[in-house]
Automatic annotation (TrEMBL):
UniProt keyword Zinc present: no
Any Pfam family the entry gives: TPMT
GO biological process: methylation
InterPro entries linked to this entry: SAM-dependent_MTases_sf, TPMT
Gene Ontology MF annotations: methyltransferase activity
Organism ancestry: Bacteria, Pseudomonadati, Bacteroidota, Flavobacteriia, Flavobacteriales
Coiled coil: none
CDD domains linked: AdoMet_MTases (cd02440)
Name by which UniProt lists this protein: Methyltransferase domain-containing protein
Length: 195
């Protein structure tokens, strides 16, 4: 099975979107709500239906770039919030091909776990390249054993430490305290700062 554009587009079209929470994830919402600078240049990769993006627009953030490989969720987001994003900030593209000016912050929510695990080292490098020095990658990782089954593919605190520590200062990596019930105990909230 290839986890490519066609795969994700078909899952959206067939409404096989078990990951979709229908709203912003509470740990990420809490993090967003304490960000004072609304001018931060922020990337939401693998943003799906864009609940975090919508929450940020409502909170006054002005410099958001939303990227997904599948057109379906981007078209829906554009329809839901027609005046919120210039077209160039809603990007339909493979994350690994994206080139742009560096960001202050990148928000991760069930994107890492949706990728084939062999791409993890490439993900770390790409995230590091897309951030300004001192820029942050923040969000949630799953905390359950990595097997052949997925997406979502699991991982552990130890694995994330080993992967990210060469390129990031690991400021926070701890059990999320306000996960939604079905994910309680299986999410790690993190803030990693680019070295
Ligand atoms: C599990 S969904 C999560 C969506 C959203 N972040 C959420 O939490 O609801 C994974 C998302 O990543 C997108 N995706 C998968 N591979 C991608 C890639 N290489 N580049 C960009 N987006 C990708 C999919 O289209 C899908 O929207």
């Amino acid at each position: 099975m290839k986890l490519n554009k066609q795969y994700w587009q078909e899952r959206y079209e067939a409404q096989r979107t078990g990951w979709d929470m229908g709203g912003v994830s509470p740990p990420i919402g809490t993090y967003i709500d304490q960000l004072a600078n609304k001018d931060l240049r922020i990337l939401l990769p693998g943003a799906g239906m864009g609940y975090e993006a919508a929450h940020m627009v409502a909170s006054g953030f002005r410099n958001l770039t939303i990227l997904d490989i599948a057109p379906y969720p981007l078209e829906r987001l554009q329809k839901r919030l027609p005046d919120s994003f210039p077209p160039e900030n809603l990007i339909e593209m493979d994350f690994f091909k994206y080139q742009g000016k560096p960001f202050d912050l990148i928000l991760e929510h069930t994107f890492f776990c949706a990728l084939p695990p062999e791409l993890r080292p490439e993900y770390v490098l790409k995230m590091s390249q897309l951030l300004k020095p001192g820029g942050k990658l923040a969000g949630l990782f799953f905390d359950f054993p990595l097997t052949d089954k997925g997406p979502p593919f699991g991982g552990s605190k130890e694995e994330y430490e080993a992967l990210f520590a060469p390129h990031f200062h690991l400021r926070v990596l701890e059990r999320a305290i306000n996960s939604i019930k079905p994910r309680a105990g299986s999410e790690l909230f993190f803030i990693f700062e680019k070295k």
